[in-house]
Amino acid sequence: MTGDDGRTGRGGVPASGEVAERAGASASGKVSAGSAAGKAGAGSAAGEGAEVFVSVAERVRRSLDGSSPGERLVARTLLASYPTAGLETAARLAERAGVSAPTVVRFVARLGFAGYRAFQQALRDEIEARRASPLTLAQQLGDGVTPDSLRVSAGAIFRQRLDESFAALSDPELEAVLDLLADPARRIAMIGGRFSHILAEYLDLHLRLLRPGTRVLDPRPESLAAFSVDVGRRDVIVVFDYRRYQRDVVEFARRVHERGAKVVLFTDPWLSPASEAADLVIPVRVEAPSPFDSLVPALALVETVVAGVMARLGKEGEERLRQCEEIVGDVTVD
């Protein structure tokens, strides 16, 4: 699969997680489920003792709730100029945030890093992972793979990515997404990149059977411009954007956020720049057996969201679905 930006393909880091691990154990991004819940606000879906991947960007974003006022200033400064602000010296970052250098050091330690140097190394590795493409990533399956070994190896990799994605998922964040999408007073619009647009269409195909007021946006510039003029506080914009990130999608997310719309972002662990404008962020793993990124975990999460919205709507959703089915009629083939 080529990249969402349409210029290069999208690829995954090696299944071993070596990009993250090069920063050392304390900066690897791999933490236990209990630690992820305590330090990064991860949901309770992770099993006890399970290792999950939480990127630097996601750790910073999740730290906002439990941080001191000074640490929140550091976090917001990082997210506003991510990741470049974190590559500056601790003193310069402190100056940007209007806090002391020790506050920056305490914040970095609170994120789980052994020191500021380990934090910066993790950031550099994350930048490398964000820019990955099929031209820079290795095939996970060796040459001469047999059909049987392909089935076993690929199946194991996909199961691992699904387990990691759901273990790292924040329950409060997911609940908030479901609340927005099931609210009949909200208008729901969806958009994705060159390839992730299929996820937007897939989600809309289900939501429109359960509730009114949903649509997939026409990605042409003139159509997005016209929509942006009319957008307001009643609107929820669901954005799908995975590495490499698509400039027009990111800019659109920022624009509708400025006009008061709620932005829900589905992205990868390294976080699309659209996360700066997002009210809620749902990251999933994207690595695959081939050098091309996978939408399998993302699709599983979309299915999860559909199930959650259906449960929230209850009888009202079932009745709308029944009426839609009656109008469509029997289209099955015996």
Automatic annotation (TrEMBL):
One Gene Ontology term from the biological process aspect of the record: carbohydrate derivative metabolic process
Low complexity biased stretches: 23-39
InterPro entries linked to this entry: Homeodomain-like_sf (IPR009057), HTH_RpiR (IPR000281), RpiR-like (IPR047640), RpiR-like_SIS (IPR035472), SIS_dom (IPR001347), SIS_dom_sf (IPR046348), WH-like_DNA-bd_sf (IPR036388)
Segments for region (Disordered): 1-43
Lineage: Bacteria, Bacillati, Actinomycetota, Actinomycetes, Streptosporangiales
Protein name: Transcriptional regulator, RpiR family
Gene3D superfamilies from the UniProt entry: Glucose-6-phosphate isomerase like protein, domain 1, Winged helix-like DNA-binding domain superfamily/Winged helix DNA-binding domain
Segments forming domain HTH rpiR-type: 54-130
GO molecular function list: carbohydrate derivative binding; DNA binding; DNA-binding transcription factor activity
Domain (SIS) ranges: 177-315
Keywords: DNA-binding, Transcription, Transcription regulation
